[in-house]
Design a protein that fits this description.
heterodimer, A: mainly alpha, two-stranded antiparallel sheet, 21 helices, B: 148 residues, 5 helices
Chain lengths: 498, 148
């Protein structure tokens, strides 16, 4: 079954429309990744309304390519102007920018691009290798287990992905409650709709995405009153190839960092940011000259850049197999799946296995494609970061407001977007966890559906199954981790350079 | 008890959760009210704990300089006003006119030269019209003044 699906996936990849959307997605992701503070998440959010009118086989690869390419783009500005294009590129700055100041910007860029490309492509092979193991596991999962898998995903995101676990958990809970607005499938009656016809259908995914993520970012950029970046540095072509060779010279470091990124990517909620810092930490700890880290060593660029792209393949596997997104970008992708009528989880890894494999292969191809595009054009691409805010803000706001309306042709969606913008802005400024709220919202209805199916099928003791009990155990351990850590304060963690 | 922004936000959530629980209790079916009550109850308790924690933190934190706070607030207020103005423009004038006016006004007020601002104010709505109205056959909102 897996082999046939793999052949079908390879056949899918020869479709010119799919290839066109993948290339377009990679370029858009790259451009958004290069612009600091904007990131591929915004590109995916802006693309979501269009995903509705496209075929799933075209829309989903485009979104995945955007997510994958964004991290690579973000490394360019991290190295050249000391401003990370995306969050996970922050660790690249520590040694990337000092290398630029030493006149070795090209070398740092070459190493970043090469390690990103290989780091994004090779874990896909690992993920593909894991599919035959994942399929029987996923087929053993029942509704009861899905209830706890969703709860575990929310707990992971809430507890691990924010500074304050209370803020993360409250945000996740709010997301669940927002998903309860409107018609309930179990009883057929509406809830919390205030008698409004618009709210009868519930809040749409597009207003939620644009309101929570897109407009608040533009308001913050507008409030700063500046362009994203005004600095730039020269890149010498010869050194770019030297950087590529550096990755091959440090292949064991690259492999370790890639594996770290992949494994961390599988864990929901931990995300690429953690992966890059852990990879950077291990590179420093295993180095012969750890004290030189932070002053411009090439290993300090290779490790985080391998890890951040590798985490995408890991996060995608969890999203596809369990329907639990490993990151905010994957939560958006999950939303896109639901919009086009596909439910990630057991069905996607069994009935639509060919599509799942196609998407995994898209991650690999998009990563390699971006490197091919970037290597000769790195110098020119870095100029994108200097696009002034006075041009960027109105254009993105226009796309956002048009996208909010165009999805269903309802002005209510525009109003909902504005209300959610207020919520997103408050949450962002107070440090509440927007991805957790989004995840709660996306998974809320599925959670309720699985819960009542499990209750009907297996009664109130539906959780007395090995998988459910294991998931409950992991959740308990996750909550207990903080207090246990406090009991042993002397343990050394991964430190980031000053 | 000293309260900061997060503590006030938690307080707002707690009030909201009480109303959700009260509303849910009046629902007819057990299946409808079960999860809203459980989730809202949980969020209420966590928000209470969060509020207490934040107020403790606020007591120890150093106050932010008043000038800095004011400048940041003014920037936010101005940016929010632009978004609100764009929304009202769409509501009353419709997408195409509102986009043209918004792009022109925003760019000009932020120091763009006239040719660039006018050029983008023409290209952007034209692009949206071609993509959405002509290619995707989605009729954009016309605005209350024009029968939307």
């Amino acid at each position: 079954m897996v082999f046939e699906a793999f052949l079908k996936a390879l056949q899918n990849l020869t479709d010119p429309t799919l290839l066109m959307f993948m290339v377009a997605g990679a370029i858009v992701g790259l451009v958004f990744g290069i612009i600091p503070g904007i990131g591929p998440l915004l590109a995916m959010a802006l693309f979501l309304p269009f995903a509705f009118v496209l075929k799933p086989e075209d829309a989903l690869p485009a979104m995945i390519a955007m997510g994958g390419a964004g991290y690579t783009g973000g490394s360019i500005t991290a190295i050249l102007i000391n401003v990370p294009g995306t969050g996970p590129n922050a660790a690249t700055m520590f040694d990337g920018f000092p290398l630029s100041k030493k006149g070795e910007a090209g070398r740092a860029l070459g190493a970043a691009l090469m390690s990103s490309g290989l780091g994004g492509a090779v874990p896909v092979l690992i993920a593909l290798g894991m599919v035959p193991l994942v399929v029987p596991m996923v087929m053993a999962i029942r509704s009861a287990d899905m209830v706890f898998a969703i709860l575990l995903g929310l707990t992971f995101i809430g507890v691990l992905a924010s500074e304050s676990r209370m803020k993360g958990l409250v945000s996740g809970g709010l997301g669940l409650l927002i998903s309860f607005i409107g018609f309930q499938t179990v009883t057929g009656i509406p809830r919390f709709d205030f008698g409004s016809l618009y709210l009868y259908d519930g809040i749409g995914l597009v207003p939620m995405t644009l309101g929570l993520f897109a407009i608040p970012e533009m308001i913050i950029l507008a409030a700063s009153g500046k362009s994203v970046s005004e600095r730039g540095l020269a890149v010498h072509g010869r050194l770019v190839w030297e950087g590529c060779r550096d990755v091959l010279r440090h292949w064991t470091l690259w492999l370790r960092s890639t594996l770290i990124g992949y494994v961390i990517g599988i864990i929901p909620g931990v995300g690429a940011e953690t992966a890059t810092f852990v990879a950077y930490g291990q590179a420093k700890q295993t180095s012969k000259y750890p004290d030189k880290f932070g002053s411009g060593v090439i290993e300090g660029v290779i490790a985080p850049e391998s890890a951040n792209n590798a985490s995408t393949a890991g996060a995608l596997l969890t999203t596809l197999a369990l329907g639990i997104p490993g990151s905010a970008a994957m939560a958006l992708l999950l939303g896109a799946f639901l919009m086009v009528g596909l439910i990630p989880g057991p069905e996607l890894i069994t009935v639509h296995l060919d599509l799942s494999l196609t998407l995994l292969l898209v991650v690999a191809i998009a990563n390699i494609l971006v490197v091919i595009l970037c290597l000769p054009a790195a110098k020119q691409l870095a100029k994108i970061a200097t696009v002034p805010g006075r041009i960027l803000v109105p254009l993105v706001l226009v796309i956002t407001f048009v996208g909010a309306f165009a999805n269903k042709g309802m002005f209510g969606d525009v109003i909902a977007t504005l209300v959610l913008t207020a919520l997103g802005l408050v949450m962002r400024s107070l440090g509440f966890n927007r991805p957790a709220l989004f995840l709660g919202f996306v998974l809320g209805r599925l959670f309720e559906q699985y819960l009542f199916t499990a209750l009907q099928a297996e009664g109130p003791l539906f959780f007395m199954r090995p998988i459910s009990l294991s998931l409950i155990f992991v959740m308990v351990m996750l909550f207990a981790y903080g207090p246990i850590k406090k009991l042993f304060p002397g343990r050394r963690g991964v430190s980031e350079p000053q | 008890m000293r309260m900061d922004g997060s503590a006030y936000f938690y307080l707002g959530i707690m009030i909201l959760m009480v109303s959700i629980i009260a509303w849910s209790l009046r629902m007819e079916y057990f299946e409808s009210k079960l999860l809203p009550i459980i989730v809202a109850g949980g969020v209420f308790v966590m928000s209470g704990a969060g509020m207490w924690h934040e107020s403790q933190k606020a007591r120890q934190a150093a106050p932010v300089a008043k000038q800095e706070k004011l400048a940041s607030r003014r920037g936010y207020a101005l940016a929010i006003a632009w978004v609100a103005a764009f929304f009202l423009g769409i509501l009353f004038l419709g997408y195409i006119i509102a986009i043209a006016l918004f792009v022109l006004a925003y760019m000009k007020s932020h120091g763009s030269r006239w040719p660039v601002a006018i050029g983008l104010a023409i290209i952007t709505p034209a692009f949206m019209y071609i993509v959405f109205e002509l290619a995707l056959k989605i009729e954009l909102f016309r605005g209350l003044f024009f029968g939307g």
